[in-house]
Amino acid sequence: MSVTLQDVQTALERIKGYVHLTPLEQHQSLSDVSGAKLWFKSENKQKCGAFKARGAHHALANLTQEQLARGVATHSSGNHGAALALAARRFGTQAFVVMPSNAPMPKRQATLAYGATVIECEPTLAARETALLECVERTGAVFVPPYDHPDIIAGQGTLALEMLEQNSNLDVILVPVGGGGMLAGVSLAVKALRPEIKVIGVEPFGADDAKRSFLTGQHVLQHHPDTIADGLRTTLGALNFALIRDYTDDIVTVTDAQIIAAMKLYMTRAKALVEPSGIVGLAAVLADPDRFAGQQVGIVISGGNVDLEHPVWL
Questions:
Q1: What positions carry a catalytic annotation?
Q2: pLDDT tens digit string along 72-120?
Q3: Domain residue ranges in the chain
Q4: Are strands 24-25 and 117-121 parallel, antiparallel or unpaired?
Q5: Is the pTM of this model over 0.85?
Q6: Burial 212-228 (b: 16+ CB within 10 A, else e)
Q7: Max CA-CA distance within the chain?
């Protein structure tokens, strides 16, 4: 089971009308600070405020009416849950979302507002998976994985097709990596169309399982993340690891302090909200400006769902 460029192209056609074609934006002052020409793929302006809307809508578009009638279920720290809840409402079905107790309140509230049933669990992957299994057995709902599934990967990869249309002269694309669905989808699409463009994953230093897996060639499964970037705490998926290993050029890490500095700078200059997980690409450029100097750098801003009641940058 794998994913191809054709799958990503088909996904883009299926989700048109459900999600936004988000802008690829420049902010001259940020380019000036970095020494590179920065282009921001603003998925913080996507439906639900995150790229997850792409994969969720594509996954539900591929379900039969019989499957939709059973309802859908997932586990999520926030953005995928909200995206699945919205997609479920649009496709006329019920969503059940298992969420860790430490999930950011705005993401939980959005999931509830879209009509999903939220099931709280302890903030570990094992607890999430156990609660999900119990939910599926109790309700009969169809499990829609948050990242490790061909439909999700193809859906997330659609943002790469848009980026290449919006700027055909990019030298490198920086992509946040948690579970790896977006990095896998973007990498395979970019390498199929423009193999000379470098694709680099970025993750927090305190949640570096993807980098360790990438460098060693062995899928790291024991993972104890410690980072403010809640959307990037998830362990890298198996299918995603295989695709990333084949198509991604590198994975780098940034510290929480660098993430917070990048958040402050972006929100000050761009006048838009971005969550910690969403800004790691800019943090990577600022941490190693010589590597990107003079290049046209695409930065995926994966989401903008910030808990303003408990701001991490203070």
A1: 52, 77
A2: 999 987 889 999 999 999 999 999 999 988 888 888 899 999 999 999 9
A3: 5-50+149-301, 53-143
A4: unpaired
A5: yes
A6: ebbeeeebbeebebebb
A7: 56
